[in-house]
């Protein structure tokens, strides 16, 4: 028990026999947690004359900050873009299941949908309660202000442009921006500049994607506040040596000094060729953010499944439109993406783990409480072995899943 | 004085740690009978601390009934600064062993009244019953703790301005930037250490050789404050080969000849 209890009477947990990811290195240090946050043990010792109430033996495992998935469309039969009778329950179910993959925070992603879906799903989400905005209450709106040419699997009839001048279109479509953490849009759409600026000013991350923008259009959007690229390489113009398009942002010299352009990578070995992954990583390693872009079928067993209007067939790591060889989306899990990324890029364990934790937290501007094991951060943890298999997951210092 | 001459830095650390271990075990501390240990910081005792941690992890020793008093602390740097002596002790010893915070004492270089802080430190040592074993190092200028050349051999815990030599020696801990090194420190006095029932000084490396020569082969002199321990009834100097390079061959041969006797002090003790 803390002997002078001058700061808090709450119990203290000490994780021992572990290697923690801190300052970009795996270090043999104990991790201390109190009241759901990482505690400074030196301060505890000298100021409070305290010590641990409970020790957890990690048996040599790695402790990393919990993974953060900023693009996930559903899973386990749940589709975030569907207005079911129990939206909150659906999100909660996915939130619980993806703990097995080490994901402790995520942005439920809504693909291009009619306004009534946004209005229904948006108002059902509970308002943000914690001081830190990424829980599963904040969403990523991918569309509908995207390019017709690069719509991918998004329904064409619901695509929109900024005809009313910008923000009006957004409010009309989305209803409210209260629970929105990120918006993906195509910056070449007329009137997008004002939208990008306004969203960025409100603290909403603006991401470029599903777009045929050239490099200067993309750079202008970044200067106006855009900071992310939605699933790099997919749904954008391919790299061309005289106009690299959005991909060129990775090495652009027009990005303001104090800012970083981050980019999402679906590193499942299917949606991006390993050589392309390596090119992006080597060009701009500190901006790489691993995302799953997982669809409803993720987590379901192999075989046929009817999901909404579609019949999907799962074979191994692939999900096809049934009866065809057309990919219907990603069923990757985040831990699998981290493992594949490490193996394909040859990066270190620390870099692979940071691509799924620190970088998304930096992107969303929440590193004060997520994505790190710094003192004061939320104790959302993932325990892994050296092969990066998830062994246990903790949220706010409480164990929520164990293998 | 016993002069223990070993081959290298690692052996010095191991011998010293075993000596401390045996002292504590033989003392047989308990809830109303604490073993009071004085401790140094710096590069020299690191090896000794690593070994003590090893002995603790093997179950050979416990710090549950040990109280510690550190020699010194810088004035004016935050307690959690990576180079503060609080940080040093936490990272290199306290966090690895079973010592309770209330049994550790380190001078507070950020106290509102530094003189009061020093006086109260002396009171705490008295209240604990005095120091059983004070472990220390030696500076290249022969100082013990921050008792720089010219410090009174009768000095007590007080505020000291650091000598240029000391600031230079410490620069390596502050990115080599002299302007970042603190210029004042709180330190126990020479007499404070002399009051301990036993004193053990660790000296390693050729850059300490001249100071060792001055400390044990020349007279007691306030310019080489470690020389004061020539007048302490129970002092052990533990050094490596390199540190003996300025001593007379006769001195070295004499004490090397006693090693078979002195090594008995660090033999593993029979289990209770």
TrEMBL record, chain A:
Q: Which SUPFAM superfamilies match?
A: Composite domain of metallo-dependent hydrolases, Metallo-dependent hydrolases
Q: Where do the annotations place substrate binding? A: 153, 234-235, 242, 271, 327-329
Keyword Mitochondrion applies: no
According to its UniProt record, which reaction does this protein catalyse?
N-acetyl-D-glucosamine 6-phosphate + H2O = D-glucosamine 6-phosphate + acetate
For activity, the cofactor(s) needed are: a divalent metal cation
- Which keywords are on file for this protein? Carbohydrate metabolism, Hydrolase, Metal-binding
Quote the InterPro entries the UniProt record gives: Amidohydro-rel, GlcNAc_6-P_deAcase, Metal-dep_hydrolase_composite, Metal_Hydrolase
Pathway assigned to this chain's UniProt record: Amino-sugar metabolism; N-acetylneuraminate degradation
Q: Which GO terms describe its molecular function?
A: metal ion binding; N-acetylglucosamine-6-phosphate deacetylase activity
* GO biological process per UniProt: N-acetylglucosamine catabolic process; N-acetylneuraminate catabolic process; negative regulation of UDP-N-acetylglucosamine biosynthetic process
Query: Any idea where the Amidohydrolase-related domain is?
Result: 62-400
What PANTHER family does this protein map onto? N-ACETYLGLUCOSAMINE-6-PHOSPHATE DEACETYLASE (PTHR11113:SF14)
This chain belongs to which protein, by name? N-acetylglucosamine-6-phosphate deacetylase
Specify the species: Oncorhynchus mykiss (Rainbow trout)
Automatic annotation (TrEMBL), chain B:
Q: Which UniProt keywords apply?
A: Carbohydrate metabolism, Cytoplasm, Hydrolase, Isomerase, Phosphoprotein
Q: Which GO terms describe its biological process?
A: carbohydrate metabolic process; glucosamine catabolic process; N-acetylglucosamine catabolic process; N-acetylneuraminate catabolic process
Alphabetized GO MF terms: glucosamine-6-phosphate deaminase activity; identical protein binding; isomerase activity
SUPFAM superfamilies noted in UniProt: NagB/RpiA/CoA transferase-like
Could you tell me the EC number(s) of this protein?
3.5.99.6
Give residue ranges for domain Glucosamine/galactosamine-6-phosphate isomerase: 12-234
Q: Does the keyword Transcription apply?
A: no
* InterPro entries reported in the protein's UniProt record: Glc/Gal-6P_isomerase (IPR006148), Glucosamine6P_isomerase (IPR004547), Glucosamine6P_isomerase_CS (IPR018321), NagB/RpiA_transferase-like (IPR037171)
Q: Which reaction does it catalyse?
A: alpha-D-glucosamine 6-phosphate + H2O = beta-D-fructose 6-phosphate + NH4(+)
Q: List locations, semicolon-separated.
A: Cytoplasm
Q: Which domain of life is it from?
A: Eukaryota
Gene3D superfamilies registered for this protein in UniProt: 3.40.50.1360
Pfam families named among the record's database cross-references: Glucosamine_iso
Which GO cellular component term is one of those annotated? cytoplasm
Question: NCBIfam families of this UniProt entry?
Answer: nagB
Q: What does this protein do?
A: Catalyzes the reversible conversion of alpha-D-glucosamine 6-phosphate (GlcN-6P) into beta-D-fructose 6-phosphate (Fru-6P) and ammonium ion, a regulatory reaction step in de novo uridine diphosphate-N-acetyl-alpha-D-glucosamine (UDP-GlcNAc) biosynthesis via hexosamine pathway. Deamination is coupled to aldo-keto isomerization mediating the metabolic flux from UDP-GlcNAc toward Fru-6P. At high ammonium level can drive amination and isomerization of Fru-6P toward hexosamines and UDP-GlcNAc synthesis.
For this chain, the family text in UniProt reads: Belongs to the glucosamine/galactosamine-6-phosphate isomerase family.
Q: What is the protein's quaternary organization? A: Homohexamer.
This protein is called Glucosamine-6-phosphate isomerase
* Organism encoding this protein: Salvelinus namaycush (Lake trout)
